[in-house]
Design a protein that fits this description.
- The chain is α/β, with parallel strands linked by helices.
- It folds into two domains: about 200 residues, Quinone Oxidoreductase, Chain A, domain 1 (Alpha-Beta Complex); about 140 residues, NAD(P)-binding Rossmann-like Domain (Rossmann fold).
- Helix content is about 25%, strand content about 25%.
- It has eleven helices and 18 strands.
- The strands form three sheets. Strands 3, 5, 6, 9, 10, 17 and 18 form a seven-stranded mixed β-sheet that branches.
- Helix 6 links the parallel strand 12 and strand 13.
- It is globular.
- The two termini are about 15 Å apart.
- The structure holds nicotinamide-adenine-dinucleotide and zinc ion (2 copies).
- The site of one zinc ion (ZN) has 6 residues, from loops.
Amino acid sequence: MADAAGDEPHEHLAPPRLRKVELAEPKAGEVLVRLVACGVCHTDLYTASGADPSGYAPTVLGHEGAGVVEKVGDGVTSVAAGDHVVTLFSPQCRECVHCQSDRTNLCLAIREQQNQGSLPDGTARLSLDGEPVRHFMGTSTFAEYTVMPEIALAKITPEAPLDGAALFACGLSTGIGAAMNTAKVEEGSTCVVFGAGMVGLGAVIGCRLQGAGRIVCVDLSEERLKLATAHGATETMVGGADTVERIVESTGGFGADYTFEATGNVKVMRQAVESARMGWGLCTVAGVAGKGETLDIVPRFLITGRRVAGSSFGGVKGRDGVPVLVDRWLAGDIDAESFISHRITLDQVNEGFELMERQDGIRSVIEFS
Ligand SMILES: NC(=O)c1ccc[n+]([C@@H]2O[C@H](COP(=O)([O-])OP(=O)(O)OC[C@H]3O[C@@H](n4cnc5c(N)ncnc54)[C@H](O)[C@@H]3O)[C@@H](O)[C@H]2O)c1
Ligand SMILES: [Zn+2]
Ligand SMILES: [Zn+2]
């Protein structure tokens, strides 16, 4: 049995609540993980609220987990009982055509099953009163225990505290990776990051690690801009209708070498495109827009040399890349702890959602005793 926050079917959508659900033993290629910490993220709230068109219920939410392997199913070789792991909503099978390419991290192995909330064999290990319960994002980490595919677990050093490690399961790796993997920011370059939440601050860190010369962070909140400075932004700017003008002006009339969008607002995405330098400016979009929204770009911006790239999980191939980022955290290159603003228990998950809606702190992390 596992304690889990599940939600009602859509037609009777209610806030997530704590339920005891059944969790079956891991099958071949699967792993039983005991969660130690889990971040509360917008994506969980989006689905819990019923706004997510691809959402399903009942499900156990949660996707920013870190924990310890309890038991492995047949054929599992890359992790063993006692290993410390970070959960990956973006798996890495190492065999599909995308895993074998260094141009993308979008593993193809279990996309369909994951989208439907099942494990790779098409079934669920979670159930409630004999009825199957879906595995949200293939992770379902708002729970004391979860069963996950082996290919969706990154083995990390046991020296890493698991509360900080959980942050690398989503937003932090997304932001850092957007700068390091997707944009491949060059030393000495000028970067502009729109948004100073977990993803934007991660992008600021990634730009700093790449040796950027100038890192301008744009947000609406002065408080968040202070955090951006602490993580390496060299300049900050309160966003507004004239943001593009101000950036172009402060870059000799050209725009920035690299821009990053981490707000999810399509108007800001447009600003990020228009703030990129003519000739070679690259705009990396990490924010997730609302259903049906489109990004408006005047084609002239592209003809004159700007490029636009999208980035999912920062282009990080999770099993290989997350352990490296965790090591950089332990080496002092990344200050992960500072993102944990609230520590809560599993039964406080709805308070975690409320804190997030009020923009109170960057991340609430659930700790399991
Ligand atoms: N691509 C991926 O794999 C991936 C992974 C995780 C999250 N995301 C997405 O990234 C986005 C950011 O996530 P987050 O957790 O950092 O969110 P967040 O809400 O914590 O941060 C967003 C920030 O944008 C700022 N903002 C809002 N409007 C703005 C404006 N007009 N100008 C400047 N700043 C503005 C807000 O003040 C806030 O600080 C979301 O859309 C999220 O869904 C994408
Ligand atoms: Zn997340
Ligand atoms: Zn793959």
